[in-house]
Amino acid sequence: MSIRHLLAAATAALIGSLVLAAPAVANVSVQADPVSAYTLTAGRLWSVVAALIGLAGVVIGGLAMARSAGRLGIGSGRRGAIVALVTGLAGAVIGGVVVAAAEGGPGTGYGIVGGYVALVVGLIAMVLGGLVLARSRRQAG
């Protein structure tokens, strides 16, 4: 898979998350019975998806940082940095939507803990991508 395809997929994931995540998370019904710890609710599903997207951004950002520190040339981690920024943003946005839509605390099935994890992991991915972009600009100038 080329970087262009990866960027297109990340952009589609971001747009899809903004369009599809908000109504899906907002329609989580209030349940009278307590939710089991093993029940996969819509909020928990979206928080897991957001955390995995953010984790992919952290891995890509880490690889881009390793490439930019090596002897592979100027700007060799720039595309990976942009992908890390986009996937980190997507994970943080979805995690933020989950946290905003949660009506209860941890253990209620709304996925609030996973939403906070997705926010943190997405922010880490964005920081890694930003550091690589700053490093590539410094080396180029």
UniProtKB/TrEMBL annotation:
The organism's place on the tree of life at top rank: Bacteria
Transmembrane parts of this sequence: 45-69, 81-102, 108-134
Entry keyword annotation includes Transmembrane helix: yes
InterPro entries documented for this protein: DUF6223
Keywords of this entry: Membrane, Signal, Transmembrane, Transmembrane helix
Pfam families documented for this protein: DUF6223 (PF19733)
Residues spanning the signal sequence: 1-21
Keyword flag Cell cycle: no
Protein name listed in UniProt: Major facilitator superfamily (MFS) profile domain-containing protein
